[in-house]
Amino acid sequence: MTADSSSVALTNEQQTAERREVFQYVLRRFGVYLFTLWAAITVAFFIFRLVPGDPMNILLGNITRAEGRQRDAAEQEVIIARYRKIFGVDDPLPLQYVNYLRKAILGGLDLGPSFVEYPAQTKDLVFRRMPWTIGIFTTSVLLAWLVGTGLGALIGWLQRSRLSQLAVVISTLLQITPVYLVALGLIIYVGYTWRILPAGGPYARHLQPEWTWEFISSLLTHAILPMLSNMIVIGAGFTLGMRALMISVLGEDYLTFARAKGLSPYTVLKDYAFRNALIPQVTALAIIVGATLNGTFIIEVLFQLPGLGTLFVQAMGLRDFNTMQAVVLFSIFAVLTLTLIVDLALPLLDPRVRRTA
Amino acid sequence: MFYAKRALLISVLAVALVSVLSLAVAQDEEMVFGDLPRSETFVVASQAPHNDVWDSFNYYQAGTYNNATGYANVVHEPAFITANGFYPWLAQSWEYNEDGTEMTLVITEGANWNDGAPLTMDDWLFTLQYNKDHADKGISWSGFLSDVEWRAEGSSIIFTLPDTNWRFHYNFGGLGTFSPIPKHVWEGQDPTTFKNPDAVHSGPYRLVSSNADTRTTIWERRDDYWDPDRLPAPKYQVWLKRPEADVAVFEWEDGNFDLGRMPFSVMTRIMSSNPHIKPLVHQDPCPRALIFNTLNPPLDDKLFRRALGLLLNRQAVANLANVPGYVTPVLWPNLGEPDERYYDAAAAEEFQVTTFDPEAAVALLDEAGYPLVDGVRVNKGGEPISLDALYIDIGNPAWTVWSWLLAEQAQLVGIEINPRLLDIPTFFTQLPNGEFDIVFRWFCGNLPGDPVQMFDGLHSDNAVPIGERAGGVPGRYSNPDMDALIEQIRTADPASEEAQSLFRQAYRIWAEEAPYVTLFGENEGVVFNSQYWTGLAVGQPWVHWTPAARQIIDFLEPAGDM
Amino acid sequence: MPALLEIRGLSAGLRGRRSVTPVVSDVDLDVQAGEILGVVGESGCGKSTLAAAIMRLLVPPQVLQSGSMNFRLADGSYDLAQLPARELRQLRWRQLSYIPQGSMNSLNPVLRVERQMTDTLLQHGLTKAEAHKRSVAALELVNLEPKILESYPHELSGGMRQRVIIAAAVSMRPALIVADELTTALDVVTQRQILQELAAIRDELGATIILITHDMGVVAQIADRVAVMYAGKIAELGTVNGIFEAPLHPYSQGLIGSIPRESGQRVEGLPGEAPSPWKYPGGCRFHPRCPEVFAPCNERIPALLPQKPERRVACHLYDAEVAADA
Fold it and tell me: Backbone dihedral region of A150: left (phi > 0), alpha (psi from -120 to 50 degrees) or beta?
């Protein structure tokens, strides 16, 4: 753009060029997305197979335990050969890899059977467990983000008040506390010592999923503590992050100007400070989702939630490649998709990205 | 004024709350799991394996089966229960003809399935054929039926065996064992995929619900059980996968579980906070042993192996690991007091089986030609001896202690032993492939199961090259004399004096050659809550992760007034 | 005729752990209605703090220490130094506008121009349609097309952004506009255009403008009167013509001597550097750099005394009493 004011009007030609630019940006981001997904799947495929330990041995161990006797080598071979074939691990590694990709892509996400819940299909298993992880994890991260962003904005805005400085100390302490300790603390005190809320399981053990008030209320009360564990730690991080962003925005010239304009403090906070600090905070959300997935796994195990985390721990113990891969695949898929959405949505929040992209 | 009002309000609320709570407490019966009376419910908190199948009750899939549902323990019943003896259950007795080529099995009449249908000879015959037909699928209890013919006669099944076999009846006993299945449920189903969703079998309970989300299975006792004398006391049984030990502690302290496994490390704490909690210490049916890789020098030398066997102080392991109870010396390849018929006490004495004697070990090493050079024992090539000892990480302190004790003792006599801790999958990969020098593991000799298993694993069939999977004892042991004995034992009637003599000879070879050395029979603790149920005591065959649970739940009695 | 803004004894500084460091000390200044008053000085002389103090935009650790700022309007007189925040907000933009220093970054990058121009108008009670009309009219004053309302700040050039800010500042037809370093980041041509536009606005709206700048050239172009600041105090005050023709204060003389002439070459500048607020010297704060320093300069603080008609100077050279003592 030139200094000449008449050039503000975009010609049709320019608009077309801009639209093409946006299209190319979306296309490029999507390409990167697909490539990352592929790379992650590939790494997961080979890494899990490089971990020492053969799932067949665990299988045989279970048989020995259940039957109370060692089968002779010939009998073992029969069993192993059979299961190797079922699990697609009897081919050479490169062929396994090709078959895996082929089935996953062309076979409608056929990721093979699982050991963990043999003979259930890994795909079904993941789809069945995913709502728990999404329900507990995503909701708590989003809530933590909302609360943390609001709180962070507030204590950033009131940075000099004593209460806000206290909030910073508390947030810092909470943020460095391992999620395991927070969860265990909640279980011990809220769940057992004071008996305020149930501290284990997805819902009361005698219930079956159905649309009754009893089930839904049980589901909700059981969700509070695991979600709280996640929220406390992640929320503290978001609070501190948002506070820092807020303070840096408060030093910007446009904020002084906004105040000089005689806008009410609320408008200044909302339209000038908060809105601008929010942009990097949205990006932080996508990053946090990836970084805190492992914390959620711990929470799921401690709270006995049938989510992807517990599934992964079980699959790891059995060296259940198919299931491990599927969990990783879906986690990566979720994180990448979220990042993609954020990347594509960022121009809506930040007009500057539209140009620089 | 304002504060006074608020205080008043709070006290009114508090009074209301207390009255509601006391009403709830005043209810004469405590309910659990919805509407089950606590005093009629037996809760088993199982430390299940990683397999997490909660909607399938199919014991053919032993490898991928989840025994935390309780199905195998309280519903699925065997022909004979074989913990501490052979107890008739769905079958009454067996008998061989004079040359051991025919066996007659008498089945129990009047049994029924928990869906109400009678358990008939038809079901038995269907099951035998079903197992034989699906033998190629690697399912449980199918291999032993190949080349075997059978026919029904009244309430007996007469098996025609291809060769003399005095041990055929063991296929109907053992921890996990042959069991008839209901024809009307299984007909036309594939044993590797069928889920038996209603958990139909002959036990005294029927399935109420099983939930993969909460990992809980609820069973209700049935009134039409075929043997009223063996009707267990609990009206309900709830089998669930217990939480992580850190969390499960609180459940135990609150008395929410009745029976289950917990690490020893937290048991004391639970017992101190809940006086009803008692440990049921018993001996694990599988004693511990050190297996030597007989292909790796100097472990190919029986004298060297025996010397190592003399270096481990079995009692010290128990003392250091703080395991409750005691450590039993294991004098033969089995648990418990040796059965004189199969045992050679003189050989045990001569070769110092299960003895801690470092001086004798030094003498053996010197005699065998492993001299001490500059404080280090050298092998026949003059190089210092260094061995890896593998053990498995399952959080058992005794299993860690032994390796360090062995390493310490070995160092005192000049041998370097490096203990290496492996995770479960890695351990179970290196072990059958023979990728070890010394390995610590358990072995199940399996009496009163088939005694042939005492030595069968030492047959040279198992001495495959390192890197290939070995069955039996994975130490690559090979000895033609032992092979000959094992082959004779396999066809002999274990009850005959002739067979017993063969066993004694094999024992002598085992004691002298020490392909593996026994360590100790380890105690295992299960936590039992006597607040609602009594009757379980040390000494009962109570191993609840096996079908023996079917036997032990009959011992349960209500605790009565509390 | 009473001044539109009457500043008396204004002091502002930076609050430290133990004490307040003075940045602006005891400033007296009258701003007459309809004039353009240039406040000029080297960077760090306190002129921006003075602007912020007038606008009540000091943020911690900046503090207003003392003084009064009487702002006389048709409906009454307000002391800007004491005015409660609420009333101050009412006054801002309607009567008191601000064109900030570094105004290249004074527009919120994520809001469209229209939103940023109209949000204030809406808060001051205008309807949406009125606000839009006002904005368009204000843009016209600075020769911008209404289309620009649809743009984001980053889509505009520096000059256009500056114009938008000016337009926003004048959209409510305020009585007083404080413009802080209006043209700093702009090229010479744009500078000239904008200054002309500002002068035109003054003529058209009858606004009063305080123009804060370090550039004597800018002052020379459009100001009516000029206040020369040095180290937080006013050194000399007078009409532009008067001061440019005959600067009295040695500092003014130095400043005027350093204006680039037509040929572009610099005549000699002032020796030395302006002191930072932590190191203000005693006595006359200019004395360490003053070519005509004499005995009382490092002891006594010179008062801002009238010398000629429409001229005040704070220098002992012109103080007969001091000269007599010396």
Answer: alpha
Rounded-to-integer distance, Cα B403 and Cα B387, Å:
12
Q: Hey, are the CB atoms on B53 and A66 less than 8 Å from each other? A: no
Phi and psi, residue A67, nearest 5°? -95, -15
The verdict on a CB contact (< 8 Å) between A66 and B72 is yes
Which chain A residue is nearest to residue B209, measuring alpha carbons? A206
Which pLDDT tens digit goes with each residue over C297-321?
Answer: 888 888 888 888 889 999 888 887 7
Chain position carrying tokens 């690490």: B263
C196/chain A closest Cα distance in angstroms:
17
- The answer to whether C100 contacts chain A (CB < 8 Å) is yes
Of C91, C112, C155, the CB nearest to A1: C155
Min Cα distance A4 → chain C (Å) is 8
Residues 411-450, chain B, touching A (beta carbon < 8 A): 423-426, 428-432, 444, 446, 449-450
Structure confidence by residue, pLDDT tens digits, C267-287: 456 777 778 888 888 888 888
Contacts of A72 in chain B (CB under 8 A): 461, 471-472
CB environment B381-408: b (16+ within 10 A), e (fewer): eeeebebbbbbbeeebebbbbbbebbbe
Q: What is the pLDDT of residues C62-118, one digit of tens each?
A: 888 899 999 988 888 889 888 898 888 888 888 899 988 766 788 888 889 999 999
Q: Contact B65/B545 with Cβ under 8 angstroms?
A: no
Q: What is the DSSP letter of B42?
A: E
At B442-490, the pLDDT tens digits run: 776 554 567 777 888 889 988 889 888 887 888 999 999 999 999 998 8
CA distances from A357 to A282, A350, C64, C105 (A): 17, 11, 45, 21
Q: How far apart are CA B408 and CA C306, in angstroms?
A: 101
The pLDDT, as a whole number, for residue A74 is: 73
| Chain C residue at shortest CA distance from A356 | C154
Tell me, what's the ipTM? 0.83
- The string of pLDDT tens digits covering residues B399-452 is 777 888 889 999 999 999 999 888 877 888 888 889 999 998 877 655 456 777
d(CA C44, CA C41): 8
**pTM score, whole prediction:** 0.78
